[in-house]
Amino acid sequence: MPHLLHIDSSPRSDRSHTRGLTADFVQRWQLHHPNGTVTYRDIGQNPLPHVTEEWIAAAFTPPNERSHAMQDALRLSNELIDELLLADVIVAGIPFYNFGMPSGFKAYIDQIVRIGRTFLFNPDDEESPYTPLVHGKRMIAVISRGDGGYGPGGRNEKNNHLDPHLRTVFRFIGVNDLAIVAAENDEHGGTALINSLESARRELQRLATDIQPQRADEFSDVKNWEFPPTFTERLSAPSDVLEHKN
């Protein structure tokens, strides 16, 4: 049966436009997939921790060499990655803060973009050292913006650092099918906001109706992969060397 991962990242509750829009999408998706299941993750009201030095050291240690403390440091990350891998469709509500994403959603990205789980690294492959591991997913990013014109060709397009960031990071782990649906003009209000919200709602209804799950074997590429020796060597280096986090 199809499975949907629903993420909200706005700190606001009832006044959040993204929460209302993602809720509408989920309701419509469930109507068209009555046997489907949904996992809900609210990282706006329940913020995720940012990665720490202990987290980074654990992530770059081969699984069979991790201490109990390292395993604990990655426990939430593993839970979030498992949610992602089990989903056929992901819908994420993401408000537009200061031309980018809120720190809470960046914390989510840092928890799920992890070597050996969502991507592989081969230092011997100079042309293409990274291999994505998250396959067969479709993602809808629901964005709310205070002003307008941030879309392609718009007057504010050059200031839109959220859309390209999302496309880059999710493509990096293998989520190539990413639709961005935006509601704009919150700061202007009135008809401009109402029309933008209605347009976003119609597009989300269309996506909820048309979108079909594409299952894939997410773990096929990781079976014979091993952590590069350079990572193990770095664990004995001074702590400031461990600052690299892909």
How are the SSEs ordered, and which strands pair?
Layout: E1 3-8, H1 17-32, E2 37-42, H2 53-59, H3 68-73, H4 75-86, E3 89-95, H5 103-112, E4 119-121, E5 130-132, E6 138-144, H6 162-173, E7 177-183, H7 190-210, H8 229-234
Parallel strand pairs: 1-2, 1-3, 3-6, 6-7
Antiparallel strand pairs: 4-5
Q: What this model shows, in words?
A:
The two termini are 33 Å apart. The protein has one domain: 3-Layer(aba) Sandwich (Rossmann fold), CATH 3.40.50. The chain has 246 residues and is α/β, with parallel strands linked by helices. The chain contains eight helices and seven strands. The strands form two sheets. It has a five-stranded parallel sheet with strand order 2-1-3-6-7, sandwiched between helices. The protein has a two-stranded antiparallel sheet with strand order 4-5.
Task: Identify the notable features of this structure and list them briefly.
two-stranded antiparallel ribbon, globular, 16% strand, alpha/beta, 246 residues, 7 strands, five-stranded parallel sheet, oxidoreductase, Rossmann fold, 8 helices, FMN-dep_NADH:Q_OxRdtase_AzoR1
CATH superfamily: Flavodoxin domain
Measured on Cα atoms, how large is the radius of gyration? Answer: 19 Å
The helix-strand sequence is: EHEHHHEHEEEHEHH
Largest sheet, spatial ordering of strands: 2-1-3-6-7
Global outline: globular
Q: According to CATH, what is the topology?
A: Rossmann fold
CATH architecture: 3-Layer(aba) Sandwich
Helix content: 25-40%
Count of helical stretches: 8
Beta-strand fraction estimate = 15-25%
Let me know the average pLDDT: 89
- The rounded distance between the terminal residues' Cα atoms is 33 Å
Q: Assign the CATH class.
A: Alpha Beta
**How many E strands?**
7
Family: Belongs to the azoreductase type 1 family.
Cofactor: FMN
Function: Quinone reductase that provides resistance to thiol-specific stress caused by electrophilic quinones.
Domain Flavodoxin-like fold: 3-205
